[in-house]
Amino acid sequence: MRLAFILSEIGSGIRRNLSMVTSVILVTFISLTFVGAAGLFQLQINQMKGYWYDRVQVTLYLCVDNSSETSCATGPVTKDQRAAIQAKLESEQFAPYVDTVTYESQDEALAHFRDQFANSPIVDSVTADQLPESFRVSLVDAEKYEVIDEAFSSEPGVDAVSDQRDFLEAIFRYMNWASVVALAIAGVMTFCAILLIATTIRLSAFSRRRETGIMRLVGASKAVIQLPFILEGVIAAVIGAVLASAALWGASRFVIDGWLANTFPQTAFISSQQVLILVPVLILLGAVLAGLSSLLTLRRYVKV
């Protein structure tokens, strides 16, 4: 009997405040979509870090005519210097750090340059002798870049030691900022959702003040009186969370899996299955926010 009463009160409250409940659903949907988007950004960043850091290479650029480093004081790298550098890289001393070593000649560097800058007007003005030879070193552990840098930065014949992580970290830094911005917007929208839920519950309680007064007189408990109002907000917020989850899954399924993954096959993207991790989090977050907001509103404005 009590359950039937609570359900009837919830239905009555939703019908009376249908426009406000719809507003709660929409605002919750938008705010939790931003929360989920921030979560997806972070999942994508972690996925790309794990993928690209495993493929990070350290590049040892060898001396050319115009090199200004002290290790290039004798001029362009000699055959003996090149052989010594390669032998050192492949020695037992660096075996725990170095996975593979690949040599790139000036002609190969020019071919790569022309592929990379095929549409640039300067491509025809660059010659092979202007580009350095290099050793591209794949590491066992990308975090051990400093070992190679310290050992070879002053090695005769080595002009510079470059780590791709510097470039990748800049990209990930911008992506992290995008995630923070999305989370900040989500915070603002969530605050708006909390205020709207509180207003909706307050109006619903005010419109039914006669019923609540009668319930108090007949001895109804505080929980029985407050529960229908709380559940109205929770139901609206959960519907908004479900819609947000569906929108995020759809974006992942059709935009990430269907378009980005095919357009950029060399990039590690998150899958739509990973998005499902966020679904229970969003639903729980929506329910908790709505429940707490409703409860605090009722304690302040509804004396039972």
From TrEMBL:
<keyword id="KW-0132">Cell division</keyword>
<feature type="transmembrane region" description="Helical">
    <location>
        <begin position="275"/>
        <end position="298"/>
    </location>
</feature>
<keyword id="KW-0131">Cell cycle</keyword>
<comment type="function">
    <text>Part of the ABC transporter FtsEX involved in cellular division.</text>
</comment>
<feature type="domain" description="ABC3 transporter permease C-terminal">
    <location>
        <begin position="184"/>
        <end position="303"/>
    </location>
</feature>
<comment type="similarity">
    <text>Belongs to the ABC-4 integral membrane protein family. FtsX subfamily.</text>
</comment>
<protein>
    <recommendedName>
        <fullName>Cell division protein FtsX</fullName>
    </recommendedName>
</protein>
<keyword id="KW-0472">Membrane</keyword>
<dbReference type="InterPro" id="IPR004513">
    <property type="entry name" value="FtsX"/>
</dbReference>
<dbReference type="Pfam" id="PF18075">
    <property type="entry name" value="FtsX_ECD"/>
</dbReference>
<dbReference type="Pfam" id="PF02687">
    <property type="entry name" value="FtsX"/>
</dbReference>
<dbReference type="InterPro" id="IPR047929">
    <property type="entry name" value="FtsX_actino"/>
</dbReference>
<keyword id="KW-1133">Transmembrane helix</keyword>
<dbReference type="InterPro" id="IPR040690">
    <property type="entry name" value="FtsX_ECD"/>
</dbReference>
<keyword id="KW-1003">Cell membrane</keyword>
<feature type="transmembrane region" description="Helical">
    <location>
        <begin position="224"/>
        <end position="249"/>
    </location>
</feature>
<feature type="transmembrane region" description="Helical">
    <location>
        <begin position="177"/>
        <end position="203"/>
    </location>
</feature>
<feature type="transmembrane region" description="Helical">
    <location>
        <begin position="21"/>
        <end position="45"/>
    </location>
</feature>
<dbReference type="InterPro" id="IPR003838">
    <property type="entry name" value="ABC3_permease_C"/>
</dbReference>
<comment type="subunit">
    <text>Forms a membrane-associated complex with FtsE.</text>
</comment>
<keyword id="KW-0812">Transmembrane</keyword>
<feature type="domain" description="FtsX extracellular">
    <location>
        <begin position="56"/>
        <end position="161"/>
    </location>
</feature>
